[in-house]
Amino acid sequence: MMTRKISTTITRIDKLAQDVYSMWLKADSIVKEARSGQFVSLYCKDGSRLLPRPISICELDRMNGTLRLVYRILGEGTKEFSTLKEGDTIEIMGPLGNGFTLEGKKALLIGGGIGIPPMLELAKELSCEKQIVLGYRDELFLNNELEQYGKVYISTEDGSVGTKGNVIDAIRENNLDADMIFACGPTPMLKGIKAYAREYGIKAQLSLEERMACGIGACLACVCRSKEVDSHTHVHNKRICKEGPVFYAQEVEL
Amino acid sequence: MNLKVNLAGVGLKNPVMTASGTFGSGAEYSDFVDLNQLGAVVTKGVANIPWEGNPTPRIAETYGGMLNAVGLQNPGMDVFAKRDIPFLKQYDTRIIVNVVGKTTEDYIEAVERLSNEAVDMLEINISCPNVKEGGIAFGQNAKAVEDITKAIKKVAKQPIIMKLSPNVTDIVEMAKAAEAGGADVLSLINTLTGMKIDIHKRKHVLANKTGGLSGPAIKPVAVRMVYQVSRGVNIPIIGMGGIMTAEDAIEFILAGATGVAVGTANFVNPCATMDIIHGIEEYMKKYHISDIKELIGSVE
Scanning A43, A110, B63, B104, which has its CA 20 to 30 A from the CA of B264? Predict the structure, then answer.
């Protein structure tokens, strides 16, 4: 896999919810090699913000050579991205990291908050039976698009839609079973899923997040504690940007 | 046009090198950078034994800069000598190994291990602000700087670069101490100790609480220190601290640096070193400079 830093043109922008934006980028060379669970790094135009922002790939349109990113405004960098218009350019690097391994006969795809977007491309690529569990604080996004790939179960913290509580509550309430879990979301959610997967003996792939600088495995900023020794330092620090962001649950300490 | 420079008898094809800790041992950047074009690759710090580094988060962006508290995670000398040195030997560039330690004995052991390896120079990191013992403790006291330099010089087969900390009252005093201890070259500056607080969570952003500030935010401090040190010692200097462009690199050279190292810029633009080499050539063309040595320390 060849990683590239290229200038891309924004072909479409949609606001999906409060502070949540969807952006399609023309990036043929990256789209050709990318797959679900990988991410790209986005560079700010403002020189006071040096570090690229890692954002997971939401969708790939291989016909048109475009990729979709869905992100939430969390700081000044994502705020800058939200001001971009269709036709504007943005520099990105990718594809980065190792994505999901497509396996299993009956899968649970679990997304929490801004961890939901990578589930869309994964749902497209997975050919097995899919149950999709989405956890929100309140306002929904991407749920309608995901419905075409499997039955969608929703949890909201305020109980306004679906199960009141979190994604695990929704799984239990609906008696969902599976032989494979794919999950992306906040660390407390991933911890819960790791415990749930162990309880029921289900294999789970978790997509992790950490603050990154280089995005390509050189700076050693984004490590996580791993069971096996890592290939770089030969300790127990796998790089989320390089060996990850997707790991098998039993492989990492959360 | 001649871009060649000489550091303690080691010839470099140009003055541009990588700053330790931002470039690994080059492998991760080889998709973006032709390592053959670099004056030298300065490796990430390596100790006698593996170090796990600090807990995460290890990194935080700040205005025009970044804080890091990686804590010198490294695979130790065995893996490094078996994997990283042979990797770098494939390229036509100078290899400078950055050496870290917690005690004088650690440094000595690492330097001795490297004595029979095909590396060109050793850069001794006595200035990392992110490890509790060793590191910077050796770099903030003139007597300690001179002593560790002497101890390392006794066993080193390659020329020694002492990497100095800016977190001192008088960096010229530290530079003179390193020179008195026998240092062949000086590198400056390492990162400035800093801190960032998340006001919404009322918590430190870095698990280590403090981290080393790098990037363009520190460049004026670094240029000033290179200038002062170059006028206080008679050994060459590798200048670094916020070099993002060829213009920045030239500023350091005019201030008195013989070599320049590019660090944080690699995260912003993985091809930064290549762009800087080309930019220096453009600058020399524009001002009819035939030999880069004419520029070193030539600020009036």
Answer: B104
